[in-house]
Amino acid sequence: MILVSACLCGINCKYNGGNNIDEKVLQMVRGGLAIPVCPEQLGGLPTPRTPAEIKIVDGEKRVVTKDGRDVTENYQKGAQEVLRIAQELKIKKAILKKKSPSCGLDEIYDGTFSNNLTKGNGVTTDLLLKNDIEVENV
Ligand code: SF4
To answer: Angle at Cα 26 formed by Cα 23 and Cα 28, nearest 5°?
Structure first.
């Protein structure tokens, strides 16, 4: 069993109320091989929601919405909930959505809301990796 970003299997949990459907991921869910999770919803954020990106504020990594609200706590709570699901089910691998401030691996948006990328992981990806859960991006 693996975890997958819920938006990749067609669930409309993306910030704009849409999804990022990926047929292969959807087939894994249909076949009972994968469980969909959306850390931003699990962290208590609404859908649709104002987009957010990771940036450094006063030397600290924070998640801030386009209109300047700090939503770091929601992102951290969502990451903890995803980790809890993985641990309860003894899951050791996740396939998550690239570039997301929650789900991205190695490359995320740079905090300027101008489509520029920078090196780094999303908040959930970071927490899963620290707990020895493999993360892949699509
Ligand atoms: S938090 Fe992850 S699962 Fe949820 S919409 Fe964003 S990329 Fe998809």
So the answer is: 115
